[in-house]
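User: tokens in, sequence out, please.
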């Protein structure tokens, strides 16, 4: 063959090899893309905003669901700009519903790091959690981390076993309602409220005047009723006589070791050890352990990056307003305070 033909053959071979390489790369890219999409969507739970996140591989037919109670227990979700670890009540209830409909869940492991919060939210989380556990006949173990006080303890109280560390702050069993009264300041400023009301108690707890003895007695009875519910929950959950519960339920906080000596905590151990103990007690050593996220991991990463960038762009004044909004949503307003199972008050 002459030189031109050899060049033509060489070019043809190069094109042929390039074609094979292109097909191989395209196939690999498609496989990798499919795998990536599978990772993003494979664990999504249909009909929910939840995605399962496997923490420990194991038997997919016998699983332990990990639930988190972190931050102030309140309705809705906290702002990522102000409280990245804020408790999301609606999300927690959605997780409970997913567990209720999942026959592979054989145990619930509750991780608590919360000072408590709203009376309503604490009660709803507690009641639905233990109703589902009872109906499914599965155990609930609670692991208290830094703080599990007031509403945080309320939700933990029904667990089959409660674990804490020596450093855990717990207790604060009780109810608080606070309101600001600034009538003296208004008088100094020459400001008067003109209130038209349908009944003498319509503006009970109003911040612009002294509270009457009748109003104080009525609000105290309101708080006492919520306190009784708290005592009942602890008594039932810890199998303690109400008299014993009341002796320790004076609002006092306790370390984990103190709480154990009082019967409020079963064992002193860190979260990993508590999970191992649960597995051993219920023959779940080979169980898959998982928790829930509200969005696929990739989008969560983007959300986190966006939140960080937004936080830098947000002015100090607007951040302060966001904090005040969060406080108002959590504690109510000065004119309409909320009942709270909360350590430390406002």
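Assistant: Sequence out:
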């Amino acid at each position: 063959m002459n030189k031109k033909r050899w060049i033509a053959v060489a070019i043809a071979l190069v094109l042929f090899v390039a074609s094979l390489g292109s097909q191989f790369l395209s196939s690999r890219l498609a496989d990798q893309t499919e795998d990536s999409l599978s990772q993003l969507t494979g664990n999504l739970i249909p009909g929910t905003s939840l995605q399962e996140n496997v923490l420990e591989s194991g038997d997919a037919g016998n699983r332990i669901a990990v639930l988190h109670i972190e931050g102030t227990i309140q309705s809705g979700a906290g702002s990522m700009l102000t409280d990245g670890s804020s408790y999301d009540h609606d999300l927690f209830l959605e997780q409970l519903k997913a567990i209720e409909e999942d026959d592979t869940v054989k145990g619930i492991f509750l991780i608590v790091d919360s000072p408590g919060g709203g009376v309503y939210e604490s009660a709803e989380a507690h009641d639905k959690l233990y109703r589902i556990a009872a109906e499914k006949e599965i155990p609930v173990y609670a692991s208290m981390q830094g703080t599990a006080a007031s509403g945080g303890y309320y939700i933990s109280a029904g667990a089959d076993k409660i674990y804490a560390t020596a450093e855990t702050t717990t207790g604060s069993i009780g109810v608080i309602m606070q309101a600001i009264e600034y009538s003296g300041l208004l008088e100094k400023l020459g400001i008067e409220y003109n209130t038209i009301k349908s009944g003498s108690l319509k503006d009970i707890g109003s911040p612009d005047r002294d509270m009457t003895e009748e109003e104080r007695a009525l609000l105290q009875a309101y708080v006492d009723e919520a306190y009784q519910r708290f005592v009942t929950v602890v008594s039932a959950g810890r199998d303690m006589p109400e008299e014993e519960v009341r002796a320790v339920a004076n609002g006092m906080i306790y370390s984990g070791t103190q709480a154990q000596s009082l019967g409020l905590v079963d064992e002193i151990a860190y979260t990993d050890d508590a999970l191992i103990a649960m597995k051993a007690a219920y023959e779940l050593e080979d169980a898959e352990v998982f928790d829930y996220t509200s969005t696929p991991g990739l989008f969560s990463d983007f959300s986190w990056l966006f939140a960080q960038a937004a936080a830098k762009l947000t002015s100090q004044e607007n951040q302060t307003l966001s904090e005040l909004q969060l406080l108002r949503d959590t504690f109510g307003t000065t004119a309409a305070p909320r009942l709270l199972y909360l350590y430390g008050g406002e």
